[in-house]
Design a protein that fits this description.
Radius of gyration: 42 Å
Number of strands: 14
Helix content: 25-40%
Oligomer: single chain
Shape: rod-shaped
Protein name: 4446_t:CDS:1
Number of helices: 8
Keywords: Coiled coil, Membrane, Transmembrane, Transmembrane helix
Number of domains: 2
Strand content: 25-35%
Order of helices and strands: EEEEEEEEEHEEHEHEEHHHHH
Structural class: alpha+beta
Largest sheet: 7 strands, mixed
Distance between the termini: 87 Å
């Protein structure tokens, strides 16, 4: 929590932990205000590694703000309080703003937790400030995020709410002076910020990209499948072609073509021919040769169907099971 004001001030910190026995000093969390020449103001902070969980949800911090500038009067501007998550704190006290070039989300998270703490003329206000913690996983814009495999940047931030609770000035001055053993003669008690976790639950949100390369390919594949199914419904499946991209491209093209040619040629690699003469005009030897060539051709076609078009392994397994049953 960062505080900025035109007049010099001091912050007193006290903490009340469960089971609420008594307050203890927590001044180790306070960074004393320093003068910022560029903005002509003073800037101080409360910084701690306080973790919100079920054991610490009832812990209460009180920050009492005291103006030490004698020229101060109630009509001056309000103190500006800015709160950020300690795990993702990019606030620069010397600039009184965020470091670097903050993203729109960082800017909005910062501005939503920035408050102006005013002081009435006759009252002193206790500002009841509660907060909840959220962890935002933001996608890093790289090639993986467009492919559908994003990497994330962890950005914890807080959401808060503040409620003013006025008290008579005299009552508050006495309570503060007695609890801190100081005189308020030369100082002005400004007010108190009392804060506590609104819930021990830490929410988590993850950014997702609706359109990626993989989702686009899925859409195109779905359209192609629908058109193909509609075409088959109208015109039938057609011929089965075993020629794919792999068979047509190097280095598989030559190997596949050679394997296909070997399956369709005889051992002597001679030109295949079939006798077309009438059977009664052929000798017995020629008829046998012609029959042998026809059988070889049928075997090559059968092998071609088995290797490239029709998978007969299921039929073969059925025949094997059937033969075993017959034998038994």
């Amino acid at each position: 929590m960062y505080f900025s004001y035109d007049h010099n001030f001091t912050i007193f910190c006290s903490i009340l932990e469960s089971p609420f026995v008594e307050y203890r000093d927590c001044s180790e969390y306070i960074i004393a205000p320093i003068y910022i020449p560029d903005s002509l103001s003073y800037s101080g902070a409360f910084l701690s590694n306080y973790i919100v969980n079920s054991d610490t949800r009832n812990t209460v911090f009180d920050l009492d703000i005291v103006i030490t500038d004698p020229s101060y009067n109630v009509s001056d501007e309000a103190i500006v309080m800015s709160a950020l998550d300690s795990e993702y704190d990019n606030y620069n006290m010397y600039l009184e703003d965020l470091d670097g070039t903050p993203t729109p989300f960082e800017r909005s998270a910062f501005e939503k937790n920035q408050y102006h703490l005013g002081q009435p003329q006759n009252d002193r206000i206790t500002y009841l400030w509660s907060f909840s913690r959220t962890i935002r996983n933001t996608m890093i814009p790289n090639i993986l995020s467009y492919l559908g495999r994003p990497t994330y940047k962890r950005m914890p931030y807080i959401e808060s709410n503040i409620e003013p609770l006025p008290f008579p000035a005299a009552y508050f001055n006495n309570i503060f002076a007695n609890s801190n053993n100081i005189s308020i003669t030369n100082v002005s008690y400004y007010g108190r910020v009392r804060f506590f976790p609104g819930t021990p639950i830490t929410k988590e949100e993850t950014e997702q990209r609706n359109k990626t390369v993989l989702s686009l390919l899925g859409i195109l594949g779905g359209i192609w499948s629908a058109l193909t199914a509609f075409y088959i419904f109208l015109f039938g499946l057609g011929l089965i072609s075993p020629w794919g991209f792999v068979q047509r491209s190097r280095p598989f093209k030559r190997q596949y073509q050679q394997s296909l040619l070997n399956s369709q040629s005889d051992k002597s690699n001679e030109k295949e021919y079939l006798i077309t003469e009438e059977p009664e005009n052929l000798s017995i030897q020629k008829r046998l040769d012609d029959l042998e060539k026809r059988v070889e051709r049928l075997e090559r076609i059968n092998n071609y169907y088995r290797e490239y078009i029709i998978d007969t392994s299921f039929i073969t397994s059925i025949k094997s099971d059937s033969s075993l049953l017959d034998t038994a």
